């Protein structure tokens, strides 16, 4: 790969021919027809003007495919990112207001700039701070909140307050919502590759216009502006509001890129290539910047549209170029067709993909694997729901709990006394009820690095055994699991060596790795001594113990 190809990933695309372009055009048409109604629905979820959902699927999608390492991902508005936008801005402004839109643009610009910076300095590894259980729990809690936000529109009410009072119910709206949901479910099961979302939207618009749904009090999309979005730089929000956007920016950056990761790993796995997460950070960040500068909200990779792109046969980024062309044509000529679409139909479009995120069995499966992680996941789920609209507290709490658990495990390494199993391997002596390898010998194995986190446990294990068994004549350290040692670990090893020498106890080192051995020799802790014995393999050590004398 050349330097220019690394800087501009689209230069790696294959040279198009007629056959390739036909297939890419079909895939692009399929995704483009789906993203138009979805974009409008997700803009409503974010509290943004509905047209901004289509803006977010235009220039951002094109920028993302040109500069990302995963060219078959469908970038644009997504339900989870839009929910985070709405939740972040609820305490700061009125949904749909000019101030709300400007703050949403700032979220897109800030999160985009942060992603570009992280990608440029190769910090994609920060994704590992959020483990799978925390992400699963947060996603499911967010799905519950998204579904709850769509219930009023889906059932013909204008708000939960109206539902509580039983006022303002609109029966035709309920009919449109349920019929659209049933049609989308049936289409997904029978013909998942068809643009069923657009078909449902257009059919519902025709029926709504024919029966005078709007005149009868039904809520519809209404007039949407035609034409291309203008480049626009939002006004400075002031330091108070800017500081209030920083934590939501971190959360949107993290969650939206984790959405990207879930799709990118599938895409790159099918292509048989290594995922370049740093380049995708740059591409997704540039897409967010483009979205913010065209008056829209933060974007992300849509798992459902990316899956549809692959299902429709997309092979390169040309498919996204065609889908952007479809969105462009729709912006120029097709906006009047969406005027009469009932908002209940938009609610159904949001509900269907989100419903699939609810997987309560994930918690039970996790409980069987790790009860601690299951508790962390359940806590993340509950905190996310209780903290709404400040959803980021759920993820932050989950990350803190997961990191605390990780640190606890690192500070309490697994140290066992080994014995010779009948199958010839060295195993936990107490678990398998095995005799000692040799009388008055303490044979231990530490399944961790010997560093600042584990050094204290290592010293404590040996000291406690020597205190309980003062007649010990030898300590054998099975060292092959120790693949790293730092200065603290080397100092701890040196203190153990001195303690054993003072008591004239022999130290047997088995299978020590070269990097660890090099550090210990440089520290002067492996000097020649009649009480230091080094063996390359466990077999060598067992043979030496079996020899008389």
Secondary structure elements and their pairing?
Blueprint: H1 3-7, H2 18-45, H3 51-55, H4 59-67, E1 75-76, H5 79-89, H6 98-120, H7 132-154, H8 160-165, H9 171-190, H10 196-211, H11 239-244, H12 246-271, H13 277-293, E2 300-301, H14 303-311, H15 318-334, H16 343-355, H17 361-369, H18 371-387, H19 392-411, E3 415-420, E4 426-428, E5 441-446, H20 455-468, E6 474-478, H21 487-502, E7 506-510, H22 514-522, E8 532-535, H23 538-546
What proportion strand? 5-15%
Helix segment tally: 23
Q: Describe the strand arrangement of the main beta sheet, using strand numbers.
A: 4-3-5-6-7-8
Report, as a whole number of angstroms, the end-to-end distance: 62 Å
Q: Give the biggest sheet.
A: 6 strands, mixed
Mean pLDDT value: 91
SS class: alpha/beta
Using DSSP, what is the number of strands?
8
Shape: elongated
* Spatial extent as radius of gyration: 30 Å
| Total of domains | 2
Low-confidence stretches: none
Helix content: 55-70%
Subcellular location: Membrane
Protein name: SulP family inorganic anion transporter
Domain STAS: 439-545
Organism: Hydrogenophaga borbori
Describe the overall structure.
The chain contains 23 helices and 8 strands. It has helices at 3-7, 18-45, 51-55, 59-67, 79-89, 98-120, 132-154, 160-165, 171-190, 196-211, 239-244, 246-271, 277-293, 303-311, 318-334, 343-355, 361-369, 371-387, 392-411, 455-468, 487-502, 514-522, 538-546; strands at 75-76, 300-301, 415-420, 426-428, 441-446, 474-478, 506-510, 532-535. α2 (18-45) crosses α16 (343-355), α6 (98-120) packs antiparallel against α13 and α20 packs parallel to α21. The longest helix has 28 residues, at 18-45. The radius of gyration is 30 Å and the shape is elongated. The model has no long low-confidence stretch (mean pLDDT 91).
């Amino acid at each position: 790969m050349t330097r220019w190809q690394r800087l501009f990933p689209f230069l790696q695309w294959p040279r198009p021919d007629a056959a390739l372009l036909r297939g890419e055009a079909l895939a692009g048409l399929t995704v483009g027809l789906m993203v138009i109604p979805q974009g409008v629905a997700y803009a409503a979820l974010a509290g943004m003007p509905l047209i901004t959902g289509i803006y977010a699927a235009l220039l951002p999608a094109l920028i993302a495919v040109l500069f990302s390492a995963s060219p078959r991902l469908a970038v644009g508005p997504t339900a989870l990112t839009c929910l985070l936008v709405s939740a972040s801005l609820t305490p700061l402004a009125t949904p749909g207001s000019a101030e709300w839109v400007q703050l949403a643009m700032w979220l897109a610009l800030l999160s985009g700039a942060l992603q570009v910076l992280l990608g440029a300095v190769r910090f994609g590894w920060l994704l590992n701070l959020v483990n799978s259980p925390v992400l699963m729990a947060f996603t499911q809690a967010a799905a519950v909140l998204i579904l709850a936000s769509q219930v009023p529109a889906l059932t013909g009410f204008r708000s939960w307050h109206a539902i509580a009072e039983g006022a303002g119910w609109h029966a035709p709206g309920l009919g449109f919502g349920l019929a659209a949901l049933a049609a989308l479910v049936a289409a997904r099961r029978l013909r998942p590759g068809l643009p069923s979302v657009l078909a449902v939207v257009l059919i519902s618009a025709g029926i709504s216009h024919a029966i005078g749904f709007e005149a009868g009090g039904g809520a519809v999309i209404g007039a949407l502006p035609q034409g291309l979005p203008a480049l626009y730089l939002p006004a400075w929000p002031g330091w108070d509001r800017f500081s209030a956007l920083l934590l939501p920016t971190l959360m949107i950056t993290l969650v939206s890129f984790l959405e990207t990761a879930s799709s990118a790993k599938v895409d790159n796995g099918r292509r048989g290539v290594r995922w370049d997460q740093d380049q995708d950070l740059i591409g997704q960040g540039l897409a967010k910047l483009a979205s913010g500068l065209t008056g829209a909200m933060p974007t992300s990779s849509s798992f459902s549209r990316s899956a549809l792109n692959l299902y429709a046969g997309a092979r390169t980024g040309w498919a996204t170029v065609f889908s952007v062309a479809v969105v462009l044509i729709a912006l120029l000529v097709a906006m009047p067709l969406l005027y009469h679409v009932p908002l209940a139909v938009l609610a159904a479009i949001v509900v269907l993909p989100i419903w699939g995120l609810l997987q309560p069995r994930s918690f039970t499966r996790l409980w069987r694997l790790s009860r601690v992680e299951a508790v962390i996941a359940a806590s993340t789920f509950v905190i996310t729901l209780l903290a709404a609209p400040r959803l980021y507290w759920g993820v932050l709490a989950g990350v803190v709990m997961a990191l605390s658990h990780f640190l606890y495990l690192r500070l309490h390494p697994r140290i066992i006394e080994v014995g010779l199993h009948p199958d010839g391997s060295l195993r936990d002596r107490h678990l398998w009820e095995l005799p000692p390898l040799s009388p008055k010998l303490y044979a231990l194995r530490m399944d961790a690095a010997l560093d600042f986190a584990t050094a204290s446990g290592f010293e404590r294990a040996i000291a406690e055994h020597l205190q309980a068994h003062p007649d010990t004549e030898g300590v054998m350290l099975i060292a092959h699991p120790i693949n790293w040692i730092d200065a603290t670990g080397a100092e701890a090893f040196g203190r153990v060596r001195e303690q054993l020498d003072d008591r004239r106890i022999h130290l047997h080192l088995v299978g020590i790795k070269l990097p660890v051995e090099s550090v210990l020799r440089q520290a002067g802790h492996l000097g020649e001594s009649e009480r230091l014995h080094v063996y390359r393999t466990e077999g060598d050590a067992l043979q030496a113990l079996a020899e008389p004398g």
